[in-house]
Amino acid sequence: QVQLVESGGGLVKPGGSVRLSCAASGFTFSNYYMAWIRQAPGKGLEWVSYISNANTYTSYTDSVKGRFTISRDNAKNSLYLQMNSLRADDTAVYYCAREVSGWFDFWGQGTLVTVSS
Amino acid sequence: DIQLTQSPSFLSASVGDRVTITCRASQGISSYLAWYQQKPGKAPKLLISAASTLQSGFPSRFSGSGSGTEFTLTISSLQPEDFATYYCQQLHDYPRTFGQGTKVEIK
Question: What is the chain B residue with the closest CA to A37?
């Protein structure tokens, strides 16, 4: 069965960096676009970034452009999000999700990133 | 960016009630809309794709309709396990955007 397992979250100081990982299993990872979606505490869902299946295309929401970088390693069935220059408003649960035809059909359980001094 | 506005933001209903949630897009998005169900502490689950295609695992009391700028999610007879927050999402353009959510609570 499809599984997505995020890791790498934790407490980070403002201006700091963290790298999130998402381990995928149960499907042919290299065939699918993947995305990161976040949810601030008590708030709604916010799409952060996506990457095409062959690493060719990426896109980011405006608030993270220049600070976050999405990448993937198809040989390792893994998705990553490098997050730099973190701010308090980046505090959220970060979900990785599989994208199919534009919707997100499977989600991981999420990893919490807290940006605080 | 395409803005999605859900109404209502909060809904209090009883078991057995018919519930309708509306999602309005700031521009036409054809049928490029999905709905998700999220329960507290859990990841969202894809409920409906392409505006009206119900995903496997969800009962037929859930239905979606609409195209262009106005969409609806209907629960024909609300059950205890349906109390959750529901989000719409447009897949017409990047950035993908979500509605602000509709929380369905027990009356």
Answer: B96
Q: What pLDDT sits at residue A47? A: 98
What is chain B's length? Answer: 107
- Find the closest chain B residue to A64 by CA distance: B95
Query: What pLDDT score does B106 carry?
Result: 86
Which of residues 8 through 67 in chain B touch A, CB cutoff 8 A? 32, 34, 36, 38, 42-46, 49-50, 55
Q: Is residue B28 within 8 Å of B66, Cβ to Cβ?
A: no
Express each pLDDT in B22-81 by its tens digit. 999 999 999 999 999 999 999 999 999 999 999 999 999 999 999 999 999 999 999 999
Tell which residue, B52, B36, B3, B4, has the closest CA to residue B104.
Answer: B36
Angle formed at CA A33 by CA A27 and CA A34, multiple of 5 degrees = 85
Interface test mutation site (partner B, options A1, A59, A64, A104, max chain B beta carbons within 10 A): A104
Distance (Å, whole) CA A56 – CA A58:
7
- pLDDT digits 0-9 by tens, A59-85: 999 999 999 999 999 999 999 999 999
